[in-house]
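Lab meeting notes turned into a lecture example. A postdoc, R.K., suggested we walk through two folding results consecutively so the class can see how the record format repeats. The first protein's sequence and C-alpha cells come next.
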Amino acid sequence: QVQLVESGGGLVQPGDSLRLSCAASGRTVSTYAMGWFRQAPGKEREFVSRISRIGGNTYYADSVRGRFTISRDNAENTMYLQMNTLKPEDTAIYYCAAALTYRGSDYYRKTAGYDYWGQGTQVTVSS
C-alpha cells in the first residue's frame, strides 16, 4: 500500500512558477517509479512526467518539456514538479502517481501504468 499527498498548487499568472510536492508513505519509496498527470475540466487525465526509482531517468510530455522539471528525494519520501513559465493551458488538477508494478515502457505515459494515486492539487494559471 502507498499513500500519496500532493501540495503546492495555487493561482498564478502566466509566466510564473510553482513547485508541486508529492509526499509518499507506505512502501519504501525507492522501490517504485513515480509520475505526474493532470486533468483539465472536460478532458481526460494526461501524462505530464515520470521519474525512475532512483531518479536517473525522467520523461516528459512534449507540452511541458523544457519548462517543467521532475525530481525526487527518496530520503524525504517526496517527489517534486518544478513548473516554470506557466501558461493558461497548464491549468488543471495535478495528480501524483506511483508505479509499483513494472508493465513496460509503453505504459509510462498511461494511467493504467500506475497503481496508486493522490487526491490532486489544483493549478490555475490566469491573468
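The second example is placed directly after the first for contrast:
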Amino acid sequence: QVQLVESGGGVVQAGDSLKLSCAVSGGTFSSYAMAWFHQAPGKEREFAAGITFSGAGSKYADSVKGRFTISRDNAKNTVTLQMNSLKPEDTAVYYCAVDYRRYANYIPMDQREYGDWGQGTQVTVSS
C-alpha cells in the first residue's frame, strides 16, 4: 500500500489557474496508473483525469478536457493536476488515487478500480 498526500487547493476566482500535487510514498509508484477525482457538494465522486504508469497516456473527463492537464514525475513520486480556466462548477474536493494493477496501459474511470486515496484538497472557485 501507498500513502497519498494532496496539496495545492485553495480559493480562486473564475478564470484563474491552480496546480494540485499528490505526493506518494511506499509501493512502486512508477508502475501504477494514477488519477484525480473530484467530489462536489451533494454529488458523488467523479473521475477528472488519469495517467498511465509511464506518463505516456492520459484520459480526461469531458468536463475538464482542454482545461486540465495531468502529469507525473516518477523520479519524485508525484502526480500533478494543472487546472486552467477554472469555473465555479469545478468547486469540489479533489482526491488523488492509485490503481495497483502494475504496468497496465489502461486508465479506469470507475472509482471502485482504485485501491487507495488521499485525504483530499478543497478547491473553491468563485464567480
